């Protein structure tokens, strides 16, 4: 199998798993969002630790101790992903899967906006148009909901911020997930201990199947991230960008077809505007990537690119 085909399989596997997450988290009821989050963190640490031990790749921790700025960045990434995970679990288990899907639809637009606000990047005209249409979509959805779609915006901005921090840290997927989960594991264990002491824990008190599902939350967190890392190493960025829409499409399908959440005309109009913004954004990205490929042979490689190739 060619690396490109393998990359597509890895990427599709990751986004299919993320797309069907709502079905999984619904099975964890009556466990509350904070308890699910705590189990997700703790069992992620255990799963990835076993994986790294099998790969004999624990030595990276010593190198991290000599990088205080990297440790601070990992702390920020851990806080952002914890808020993101909690918001998503809360949204699913409060029957607002449509709004969580919206968050991941608008995430690419939020990443572009963060590039302007944080990295001072300059946008092309089509990117500004996409952002404008996206803002109009949020306004339409605000009128429909009678409030800002705050779950969607929280998901989009926390995952966008997480992506930005992760890009600067440049840690491999397994190592990064292990350290981030380890940072969160102490408060997670303390919270689970408090639940057990007060008799409010659901772990081990609902059914054997429910207990197994809570334990498997760690593997279910790690596996798609590892598949995504495998895809990112083999696919062009534009191909990876196209695959990212698989997950929110499946989540929206679960919300409307499986959970029967309402989709009134005004809400559908807001989603259509989001999709229009994404079409403009994607077409511009594909065109820009094609122009870059055409101009690359005529341009001498920079010393930085040569050094990176080595």
Summarize the structure in words.
There is one protein chain. The chain has 310 residues and is mainly alpha-helical. It has one domain. It has helices spanning 3-19, 21-26, 33-55, 60-65, 68-93, 97-117, 125-145, 150-169, 173-198, 208-232, 237-243, 246-258, 265-295, 303-309. Helix 1 (3-19) runs antiparallel to helix 10, helix 6 (97-117) runs antiparallel to helix 12 and helix 6 packs across helix 13. It is globular and about 55 Å long. It starts with a helix and ends with a helix. Mean pLDDT is 85; it is low at 298-310.
Query: What is the structural class?
Result: mainly alpha
| Tally of discrete structural domains | 1
Apparent shape: globular
Distance between the amino and carboxyl termini: 26 Å
What count of helical segments does DSSP give?
Answer: 14
Query: What is the count of β-strands?
Result: 0
Short account of what is shown:
The protein has 310 residues and is mainly alpha-helical.
Features:
14 helices; 80% helix; 310 residues; 0% strand; single chain; disordered C terminus; mainly alpha
Which secondary structure elements does this structure contain, and how are they paired or packed?
Blueprint: H1 3-19, H2 21-26, H3 33-55, H4 60-65, H5 68-93, H6 97-117, H7 125-145, H8 150-169, H9 173-198, H10 208-232, H11 237-243, H12 246-258, H13 265-295, H14 303-309
